[in-house]
Inverse folding.
């Protein structure tokens, strides 16, 4: 079977690619498991072609393409992918500061992809990465799948519209869609030669990532959030497992909707800092110092996000949350074995 991954060069896209290669097979549109014969990896910059596990013979095509260009998208689906992972996106800051670009990638690009697949007519399984940003405003303590989507950012609005599009195309049988709303995903590795994330990435996610990635490199971190700030988080490892899991679920598992939250760990930033400190201590290295310097702009953004992210539907399917901050840090170290200073 042929699998198309858009956004394949990104933080999660590269990890999904490795997971698909290691797995070697997926459930096809007919509900039967099949070996993966071809992976088509697409991003604005052509992704690096990954190494295949021993014994695999999967054709890999890594392409540079604009996921918002309809003609390009039509060429990508011309020979009928059996599965699609739609992960191409511009994130919150870019979607807010460049509204047109956010519309092009997050909305028009998704619609062009769905339309191309409708016209192709082979109804592939279609996995769409949505976000906790689809929720906003006053929220209950625990946000489950039944909470109304009331996004307060352009990115969240585009993700919410994307979920509705995937559901409608699925209702018509054009695709077999399933959408996973992601929490804060922990965590990108800053790289041994890179400057601290907090200094280079003026985003909330970058500031939170620095509590693990930069500290384990021995870099001091000034966090623009209060230590008692509570977030819903998941390791990248858990996210990738969940994306594959929802691909494999039968459509009946989704009920009247094609979307579900990824159950997530609710923790404070202080707990995350303590876990990264413990990991450094166990490795016999010095963790960077933590300084808490709350910035009202950052704090206001985080305070409107869900603090507890749950899904009975996902839990019933065996999709669960990380169990502790230490488990999230351990998953980060497995993914980045050279992360410690």
């Amino acid at each position: 079977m042929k699998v198309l991954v858009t956004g394949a060069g990104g933080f999660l896209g590269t990890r999904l690619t490795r997971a698909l290669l290691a797995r070697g097979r997926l459930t096809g549109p007919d509900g039967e498991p099949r070996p993966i014969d071809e992976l088509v990896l697409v991003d604005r910059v052509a992704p690096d072609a990954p190494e295949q596990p021993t014994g695999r013979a999967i054709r890999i095509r890594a392409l540079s393409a604009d996921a918002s260009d309809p003609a390009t998208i039509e060429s990508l689906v011309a020979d009928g992918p059996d599965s699609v992972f739609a992960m191409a996106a511009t994130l919150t800051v870019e979607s807010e500061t460049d509204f047109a670009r956010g519309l092009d990638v997050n909305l028009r690009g998704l619609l062009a992809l769905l339309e191309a697949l409708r016209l192709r007519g082979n109804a592939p399984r279609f996995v769409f990465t949505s976000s906790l940003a689809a929720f906003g405003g006053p929220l209950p303590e625990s946000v489950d799948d039944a909470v109304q989507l009331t996004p307060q950012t352009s990115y969240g609005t585009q993700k919410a519209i994307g979920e509705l599009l995937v559901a409608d195309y699925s209702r018509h049988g054009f695709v077999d869609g399933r959408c996973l709303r992601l929490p804060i995903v922990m965590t990108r590795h800053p790289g041994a030669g890179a400057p601290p994330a907090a200094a280079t990435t003026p985003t909330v996610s970058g500031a939170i990532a620095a509590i693990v990635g930069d500290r384990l490199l021995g870099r001091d971190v000034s966090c623009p959030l209060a230590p008692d700030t509570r977030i819903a988080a998941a390791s990248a490892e858990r996210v990738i497992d969940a994306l594959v899991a929802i691909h494999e679920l039968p459509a009946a598992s989704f009920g009247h909707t094609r979307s579900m939250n990824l159950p997530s760990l609710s923790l404070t930033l202080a707990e995350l800092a303590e876990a990264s400190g413990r990991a450094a201590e166990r490795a016999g290295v010095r963790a960077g110092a933590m300084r808490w310097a709350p910035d009202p702009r950052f704090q206001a953004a985080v305070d409107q996000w869900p603090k507890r992210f749950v899904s009975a539907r996902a839990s019933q399917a065996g999709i669960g949350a990380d169990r502790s901050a230490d488990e999230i840090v351990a998953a980060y170290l497995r993914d980045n074995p050279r992360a410690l200073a």
